[in-house]
Design a protein that fits this description.
heterodimer; A: Rossmann fold; Rossmann fold; 3 domains; 5-stranded parallel sheet; 15% strand; B: SH3 type barrels
Chain lengths: 361, 75
């Protein structure tokens, strides 16, 4: 396929791996901040071919995984209030304090999986006598698609559509991770499609204030290897700058139209991240002008008290990059993709699920 | 979950801003709201039912060129 197979060339990948080994001398911990990168790295076996001094850590890049239990409890309370509750499929199996959206669906709660916000909007048009709520979970890549649905609802006069928004943005989470001071990091593999929207400029603070190199990466094996090469080169040269490997989809300024859409509908707010806690300015909430589409304002629901994470679950530490999945006592034993305990094993782009699925003997 | 596979625009409905995007034989419908400049034949990156970027073909070639130069592979 065009612009795909070229970036999967195994001969080039092998040569590139060799080049990384040749230039890398120092201890180098790199973190990828995108769940799809976590999966791509696991699937391609890149972790295993790195020299001993290079460690690839996974960060809080899976939106499903970082959604707090309390937000999930509220989503279920809204879903049970008699609305049609629409969601992306990967939220279904995530355990909340008491059940999951999937379990609620099996006992008759009207929960429907959609592929896009426009599908949710269509359900609203087809069911004018019902309230339709979309569960807005995601990062900057998904946020404009939510914004478009609200602008479309406004334009078409659809009044029975609203969103329960727990959307999050990536740069403040990176700052929060760095400020926790738990990580010794030499570089960030920055997300590809979040950056297609926001550009690479928002990572400038990481190089300026923390002197940690950043490279925005594509999703194919050569993309990731080239990104690692670029990061290692910076580390060895004693540099810290923001670079883009994934130039075919990412520019420094990003997609301005998408940014304007986000800005029109959302403003930033504090948000709770699983494993990290409240991060200032890391969430998106619906602006006053669009508040009639805000399900939190529209539905006054009783939310049962949120329970802490299940005992033994290390998702919090794993999302902060201070534990590997196999450091968790539940990993692969009590917790598997078939019977997940923590969200990192539930989501297809969760770190534990990726490690489990592509584990190598 | 991000899909890094670019698809080719094969049909555009201007009024609804919806396009048909071909991924080597399988077609998906995607909104062009974020990439109004996209035209027939362009490659786009799709996320959750919307095109988020038109693929910059020059930059794709440039990246591959850099890689080949780095690995000293003769053209």
């Amino acid at each position: 396929m065009k612009y795909l197979s070229e970036f999967r060339d195994p001969v080039l990948a092998k040569k590139l791996t060799q080049s990384i080994k040749e230039i890398s001398r120092r201890k180098t911990n790199l973190m990828e901040v995108c769940g799809t990168h976590t999966v791509a790295i696991s699937k391609s076996g890149i972790r295993q071919v790195m020299p001993e001094n290079i460690t690839l850590l996974s960060g809080p890049g899976c939106p499903v995984c970082v959604t707090a239990n309390s937000d999930l409890d509220k989503a279920i309370a809204i879903a049970k209030s008699g609305v049609i509750f629409t969601t992306f499929g990967d939220m279904l199996k995530v355990p909340s304090s008491y059940s999951s959206l999937g379990e609620e669906k099996t006992v008759g709660v009207d929960i429907r999986v959609v592929y896009s916000t426009l599908d949710a909007l269509k359900i609203a048009e087809e069911n004018p006598d019902r309230d339709v709520v979309f569960y807005a979970v995601g990062f900057e890549t998904t946020a404009p698609t939510i914004a478009i649905s609200l602008m479309e609802a406004e334009r078409r006069g659809i009044k029975n559509y609203s969103i329960y928004c727990v959307h999050k943005i990536v740069p403040p989470a990176i700052r929060a991770l760095l400020d926790l001071g738990e990580l010794g990091l030499e570089g960030f593999i920055c997300p590809g499609h979040v950056s297609a929207i926001i550009g690479s400029d928002p990572y400038q603070f990481i190089t300026d204030e923390y002197q940690i190199p950043c490279v925005v990466a594509g999703f194919e094996p050569l993309d990731i290897l080239q990104t690692i090469y670029m990061l290692v080169k910076q580390v060895e040269d004693g540099e810290a700058k923001v670079e883009i490997q994934y130039k075919r989809s990412v520019s420094p300024e990003g997609n301005k139209i998408a940014q304007e859409m986000m800005d029109k509908v959302f403003e930033t707010a504090d948000a709770e991240w699983r494993g990290i806690g409240i991060i200032p300015g890391s969430g998106l909430k619906v602006r006053e002008d669009y508040s009639h589409f805000d399900a939190e304002k529209r539905f006054d629901v009783d939310v049962p008290p949120t329970k802490p994470d299940p005992p033994g679950c290390s998702c919090g530490e794993i999302l902060r990059g201070i534990k590997f999945p196999y450091d968790c006592q539940l990993f692969g034993q009590a917790c598997t993709p078939e019977r997940p305990i923590g969200p990192c094993m539930v989501s297809s782009e969760g770190c534990c699920a990726a490690y489990y699925r592509y584990r190598r003997a | 979950m991000c899909v890094g596979v670019p698809g080719k625009i094969v049909k555009i409905d201007k009024e609804s801003q919806m396009a048909e995007v071909d991924f080597e034989g399988s077609t998906r419908v995607a909104g062009l709201h974020m990439v109004p400049e996209a035209k027939l034949g362009d490659y786009v990156i799709i996320h959750a039912g919307f095109a988020i970027r038109t693929l910059n073909e020059e930059e794709a070639k440039e990246t591959l060129k850099l890689l080949e130069d780095l690995l000293e592979i003769p053209e």
